[in-house]
Amino acid sequence: MTPQSHPSAVVASAAADDPTVAHRTRTRTVQVLDRAGNPLVGAPVTVEQTGHDLGFGCIGFDEVHRAGRRLAGKPFTGAEEELHERLDALWFDLFDTATLPFYWGTFEPEEGRPRTAALRAAAEHFVSRGARVKGHPLVWHTVAPQWLVPKADDEVLRLLRARVQRDASEFAGLVDTWDAINEVVIMPVFTQDDNAVTRVAKTVGRVGMVRLAFEEARAANPSATLLLNDFDMSADYEHLIEECLAAGIRIDALGLQSHMHKGTWTKEKTLDVLERFGRFGLPLHFTEITLMSGQHMPSHIEDLNDHRVEEWPSTPDGLERQAQDAVDLYTTLVADPRVQVITYWGLSDHGMWLNAPGGLVFSDGTPKPSYDALRGLIRGQWWLAPTTAATDDDGRVTISGMPGRYAVEVGGVRHEVTLDDDGADVVVR
């Protein structure tokens, strides 16, 4: 009797056949052996993806608020807690990278009394469930403490250095990615309020402020990933990057903001931004994405903060447009190998900046079409759901999909496998 043949077994996600992400697809072969070291032929193996290497992020500000209330002995009501749990479940069902608020003025409203406990509790909440955490930002002129203003410049710089050292050090291991400094292009010329950071930036200069932030943060946490982050996508930001690199400042990644309150970027603009900032050879993080599900802000508004309305509702056309915009933007970004992290700036409309309808979820926790559309990409097309295949004649199963973490289950035992640039075979027994 001729033995049954077991041809090569391949388990692949839809991404493996998608030409737009072919450059990201990785392949790894798992060989299953018995206790004696012999290949198990025709053995059923179940493979599923458990995590993306590419960061799909969102802010986690609500969790900080929740932790602060709990620590103050003012827990949410039953209805509030139910809504938070619903939003939390939606967050983890789509995202894997949380940005937490370390704005100095709200983090340390009174000198010497930082709200470390609430931020730590929030960071632990995300890390305990497998998410990565980024702090935003260590240095920024906006939301700076008012208690800094009367101090002399030398003292402001000393306190600024101490703040960066303290927080980068105390949160090491929980928060290992930081926007080291935010919006430096306008920092020395900012006129919207009286703050001490802008004042010292006029003297120290843009490059000097960047050096301060990066050197102090790296000394406090040498393994941290440190970003230069800005909303200014003009040549001014390019020139700043050039000057910083020429000055020998080590920048780990470039942060590119894209709040689209005034109108969605065209694909041509997105590709232009990717090309102009990708030329530096640094990883790109799209750090702050906002897409409208209602009318766009009037085009004559220059500073987005100047547009203040009590109500800014979603519209049927806006909801449809936001979903398509989200798919188009994320597809374009994932197709560029220089993009490492894509962060949306707010899951829900509740508490959204400027009261804008920029969330992927309504205030009551109901997903918008944009949420479902993104989930169809991130946890659908670019994800490997549990799939079972039989090992071939050499006891092998080949996995093909987006880089990340995978679980291989055989004989009731789960093994963790990583798809990355190391294509070496993995042996499990």
From TrEMBL:
Q: Which reaction does it catalyse?
A: Endohydrolysis of (1->4)-beta-D-xylosidic linkages in xylans
Cite the entry's keywords alphabetically: Carbohydrate metabolism, Glycosidase, Hydrolase, Polysaccharide degradation, Signal, Xylan degradation
E.C. no: 3.2.1.8
Provide the GH10 domain boundaries: 77-377
Q: What is this protein called?
A: Beta-xylanase
List the residue ranges of the region (Disordered).
Answer: 1-24
Q: Which domain of life is it from?
A: Bacteria
| Bias (Low complexity) | 7-19
Q: Spell out the family assignment given in the record's similarity comment.
A: Belongs to the glycosyl hydrolase 10 (cellulase F) family.
Lineage runs:
Bacteria, Bacillati, Actinomycetota, Actinomycetes, Micrococcales
